[in-house]
């Protein structure tokens, strides 16, 4: 795992053998297979959420929201990319810390309780809009 984190530029090892964190998130490096696996998982989770929400009662809906605007000037795009990345990363780190404090260790529980998989994904999308899309 350390070699994967090093290859992705998430950590580096000092001359004294100390591992230093460079990035607060694992983002696959040049390994296309890792990227495809992560992207495929993300697409599957979004489709699963949509499928669930199509048939769920109003009390059982999963969170599914987005913010969008079809009339943003090109000069504002770089600033929004940066702002959205910073805010999204901060939120994900906060949620990851919360999830970590709520993990169960089934090897020490008397009941043999199994954990549940949960996730929250955030994505960024951008494209030029036609006049019809803006109205």
Can you describe what's shown?
It contains four helices and two strands, in the order αββααα. It has 135 residues and is mainly alpha-helical. It has three domains: 1-30, no CATH class; 32-65; 68-135, no CATH class. The protein has a two-stranded antiparallel ribbon. The mean pLDDT is 84.
Short account of what is shown:
The protein is mainly α and 135 residues long.
Portion of residues within helices: 40-55%
Rg, rounded, reads 20 Å
- Mind summarizing the main beta sheet? 2 strands, antiparallel
**Spatial order of the strands in the main sheet?**
1-2
Structurally, how many domains make up the residues? 3
- For the termini, the CA-CA separation is 49 Å
Q: What do the pLDDT scores average to?
A: 84
Proportion of residues in extended strands: under 5%
Please provide the count of β strands: 2
Put simply, the count of helices is 4
Poorly predicted segments? none
Structural class, from secondary structure content? mainly alpha
What does the overall shape look like? extended
């Amino acid at each position: 795992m350390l070699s994967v984190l090093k290859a992705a530029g998430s950590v580096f090892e000092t001359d004294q053998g100390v591992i230093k964190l460079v990035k607060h998130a694992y983002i696959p490096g040049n390994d296309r297979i890792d990227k495809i696996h992560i992207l495929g998982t993300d697409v599957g989770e979004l489709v699963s959420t949509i499928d669930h929400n199509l048939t769920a009662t109003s009390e059982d809906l999963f969170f599914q929201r987005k913010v969008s605007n079809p009339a943003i000037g090109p000069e504002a795009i770089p600033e929004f990319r940066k702002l959205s990345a910073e805010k999204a990363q901060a939120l994900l780190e906060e949620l990851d810390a919360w999830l970590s404090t709520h993990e169960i260790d089934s090897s020490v529980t008397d009941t043999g309780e199994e954990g549940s998989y949960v996730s929250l994904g955030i994505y960024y999308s951008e494209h030029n809009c036609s006049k019809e899309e803006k109205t």
